[in-house]
From TrEMBL, chains A, B:
Any Gene Ontology biological process: Mo-molybdopterin cofactor biosynthetic process
Gene Ontology molecular function terms on file: metal ion binding; molybdopterin molybdotransferase activity
Keywords: Magnesium, Metal-binding, Molybdenum, Molybdenum cofactor biosynthesis, Transferase
Name of protein: Molybdopterin molybdenumtransferase
EC number: 2.10.1.1
Catalyzed reactions per annotation: adenylyl-molybdopterin + molybdate = Mo-molybdopterin + AMP + H(+)
UniProt xrefs under InterPro entries: MoaB/Mog-like_dom_sf (IPR036425), MoaB/Mog_dom (IPR001453), MoeA-like (IPR038987), MoeA_C_domain_IV (IPR005111), MoeA_C_domain_IV_sf (IPR036688), MoeA_linker/N (IPR005110), MoeA_linker/N_sf (IPR036135), PBP_domain (IPR024370)
SMART domains for this protein: MoCF_biosynth
GO CC aspect terms: cytosol
UniProt family annotation: Belongs to the MoeA family.
Species: Desulfofervidus auxilii
Cofactor(s) this protein cannot do without: Mg(2+)
Residue span(s) of domain MoaB/Mog: 191-333
Amino acid sequence: MLEKTDQVTEDIGQVMPNRRIYLKMKSLKEAQSIFFSAFNFTNFLKTEVISTTESLNRVTAKPIFARFSSPNFHCAAMDGYAVNAELTFGVTLDQPKELTIGKEVFAINTGYPLPDNTNAVIMIENVVEKEGKIEINKAVYPWQNVRKVGEDIVATELILPPNHRITPYDIGALLEGGIFEVEVKEKPKVIIIPTGNEVVPIEIAQDRGIEKGQVIESNSWMLSSLLNTTNAICEKWPVVPDEFRQLKTTIQKAVESDAHLVIILAGSSAGSKDYTVLALEELGEVLVHGVTIMPGKPTILAKVNNKPVIGNPGYPVSSVISFEQFVLPILSQMQGFVYEERPKLKVFLSCPVPSKLGIEEFLRVKLGQVGKNIVATPMPRTAGSITTLTKAHGIIRIPAQREGIEEDEQVEAELLVPQAEIFNTIVIIGSHDLTIDLLTSELKKIDPFLNISSSNVGSLSGLMAIKKGRAHLAGTHLFDPETGIYNLTYIDRYLPEIPVKVVNLVIRHQGLIVPKGNPKKIKSIEDLTRSDVLFVNRQRGAGTRILLDYKLKQLNINSSQIKGYDCEEISHMAVAVDVLSGRADVGLGIYAAAKALNLDFIPIAVEEYDLVVPETLWETKKIQTILQLINSHKFKQAVEKMGGYETSKTGMVKR
Amino acid sequence: MLEKTDQVTEDIGQVMPNRRIYLKMKSLKEAQSIFFSAFNFTNFLKTEVISTTESLNRVTAKPIFARFSSPNFHCAAMDGYAVNAELTFGVTLDQPKELTIGKEVFAINTGYPLPDNTNAVIMIENVVEKEGKIEINKAVYPWQNVRKVGEDIVATELILPPNHRITPYDIGALLEGGIFEVEVKEKPKVIIIPTGNEVVPIEIAQDRGIEKGQVIESNSWMLSSLLNTTNAICEKWPVVPDEFRQLKTTIQKAVESDAHLVIILAGSSAGSKDYTVLALEELGEVLVHGVTIMPGKPTILAKVNNKPVIGNPGYPVSSVISFEQFVLPILSQMQGFVYEERPKLKVFLSCPVPSKLGIEEFLRVKLGQVGKNIVATPMPRTAGSITTLTKAHGIIRIPAQREGIEEDEQVEAELLVPQAEIFNTIVIIGSHDLTIDLLTSELKKIDPFLNISSSNVGSLSGLMAIKKGRAHLAGTHLFDPETGIYNLTYIDRYLPEIPVKVVNLVIRHQGLIVPKGNPKKIKSIEDLTRSDVLFVNRQRGAGTRILLDYKLKQLNINSSQIKGYDCEEISHMAVAVDVLSGRADVGLGIYAAAKALNLDFIPIAVEEYDLVVPETLWETKKIQTILQLINSHKFKQAVEKMGGYETSKTGMVKR
């Protein structure tokens, strides 16, 4: 999968017959400075006068000065008695003084205006009230305990500078200062033009579904949602097919409209059907074509009719990264406010990550706090998979001049979720099982604030993660051929110095996953050696792989006899998808995976899938909540319902 | 001002005649847990089905599973030729092979569906095209360069868990998965009820302005803007006067409506006209009255008709702090998503800040970056001044069990502005002078993006700040009695290892500040020894203090002969206020301070007020802009106009 991704987003750009190359390839920094400096944004937007109460997040066009002072009168800052301070001068403990209520002093509440000829307030705590009079034994000085006129805002003083983004607090200050209308920059208008013959608008997909070869037009909705924080007005245009003339005239119409920014979706790379760059070359000036980022490389930055026009890549993740690097910042530049970057955190990667030299990679990661460490687990890097973004907690940027990041190197991650979510993340590393996904969704129901980040790296790597203090839980189903015992002997071997608890999650059925109807009539492990049978295997260290090798040994089958033995996938679902797609005729995996894709299943063995927990974490809320869930009747029922599982040992603490 | 503030927000709660006390005072943590746990928020909100495209930031009511797989067909991951992989088996460099286009291989673009009977794509880079045929010298394996069905989303798999806040990315994933409608929590409805006889709605203020004793009703607009990020629908009700029955019936109507949360503005403290707590006691249960935070103490947390009802303090800053601590979190709890806290930064304070034991203070600060250090300058602590929030860059929380924060202690500041804004702040630490305030306001005019944060801690502390790398500029007027030279000799002594530039800001007149008409006929320093004269001094290290001591030495006057020599103030204005209020008969300070309070001034000396700049910063835009301003005719004119200053050396680089 990793390989494939690299190709998807990398190789497009190389010299090849009947294709163009990226003539204006730039690094991210170069591209941004070329693009942003190509326009003069002062006065790019008109201004408009709107009600102050409607002005949240808008940007001031001029300095704004107060019309009223606040307060506009001297008022009591305390409850007590208003007085002319001079009447109290010289008063001390030895020389107390009586003052007549209603004549010399006047009862007053906080916030109320001072009576004429008074300039101070004696705190109620400092008076002894006798009928008609008060006695004091302490002087007050002029304006003591008084909020003077203009203490907060003095009429004519500057409330807000120009190019200031209006906050809720500002709205309070503006109204206090008697400013009921403000002149602000107009909202920038953005036109989004989806393209592609295969693309189906959602209205149609909603009615008729989609046919083979069609794709739902979702990018424009995702991007317009990303505009949410920018004040921009978004206008979505109908999908344009891959037809040069039509694309060109559509772009022309867009740049000649009142829009301030035009974005063309997909068709931005250098393939034979990617017309955007040609159209833009004819209509105006292409400033950048191709940015050395991954995902996001097929980005076009152009200037047409003095307006910024952007060719946005078609793969959803590339589309988002490119959009966030070029569209969002330019919209804040137009309005003249500082573009707000995401908060960052120092993290450790749960495994080393190689990366291609010369490419700045935006690596999506899951984040969880284990002890003092914040652990980042890399997610699939495919540009075509939007779910890698929806499930990510952060993004780590791997600089172009680096060939990757070491496992024990601390790096910065940009946060995609509230930081609290990370502290509430339970890091499960190890073998994949669908009941982990079930755990994830059920957990949300009993505690919406907890969430699970699970990485499927195989049982052994899971134990290693526990060893390094990089996981709360490891999911493992390691069969020991010598003893016939699951997991415990491996734990003794690999985690001798770390006291852990071991809890059974499920007993599950492993078996051969074959296409519906089992066309090749596969009955047993022996059939894997047939020449007409293509097998798909799991990666080394995976429990399923060990189980297979054990069975082969029992049957004296040499792995070289099995076609596809060396072709590896890293999850049960991946194996099932291979069988569904015809990439393989058979794979070894769990029933639930076969069922999910409506494939047939031939049981081979039952195995114990356990969770390993460091004892130090056993009492934590995270772990206890998980255990409570695992032991619940509801969870066990749900597991049984999936089929291919037994829950007779579920929740049992084996050690 | 500091004194006054403390009283404003502190003393309200003490026992005093004709007032109630806070019976249910709690710490912030206590108050939050009491309040949040008093309600069962599961099913507190109904659910509704809305279009996926409208669902940004809404919260899922149920787990959402995919209906379609994405992609729903095998498609080319690369541009090239689709082929049945078996046709390429055995092909190598030595054994190349020709394949017929349209028969054995089919030209295909990225993203397009594979023709029937093909299962792989040969990259265009790896073929030599001859008419009608292509030659290859490398085999492909089945499904190489192919995006398989379900690579991103497999039908039936979980796209979103329940209680998940929908992001732009999620919208993309939902649409890809064929989910066009989602079931989400309804929007929580909030009713805001302003109260107070003095409060004027903005519509009226806009038409008629406001009269003495009136206040514009701005809090409700500020708070409803703060709801912007919460999905909440806000209903503002008309202002209710300070009248018990009317307030009570209004609250009753509100809690019996379909609202989920009710907020009453002002009248939440324990003053004789604060009816809210009484009304709530009669209508339901008051859980908390009074929270030990500053600002924000007069907060009421109640439960009426099983709904949360909040009494929100009247002073704008108290109102905001209370709102952010109780209203925003409870709205996210209702919907079941994690409340997003502000990003935090580690900072140093520009001066030590004492704080009241037992009170958790929310200290507003300006932030500036000096080298690696981020320096926080405390702002006025008055609860009544909304502009302290609009101008603040961050908030530092001083825990209740602390009596303050030391100068060299690193603390956390919550960011109120984009981090970038902090880099535009010029930090000036040192002796106070009114021309620094002038500099601040003039700077905004020539560069709205730059701003100055200045703290007045005396000349010596200013030099120390430069030494510690905590200031861009230090304002100093240190007179050296030995040499008669200003500043330079002190710089040699205290900053030997730090190369600095020294620029004159102004020459200013120091003199004796006495009440209007100079009742005690004070003429010279000698008069300070008179037994009928009470003096007020400046703090140790202040240039003015050193000047005085020098004069005393010249005149062989012993400081013990001066009544009030040990009574210290930390700014010129503070000294002037003491004289104005009668606390002292005379103080030493600058003309501008005397003038500001309309006091008399007897000149004693002229002194050189210089700015010290580390050479490393000299060329920076910040410093150069400041220098340009100081040298401008406009600035010098403005200084002359203030009186008590000479600008003959202004802008001169003395070193």
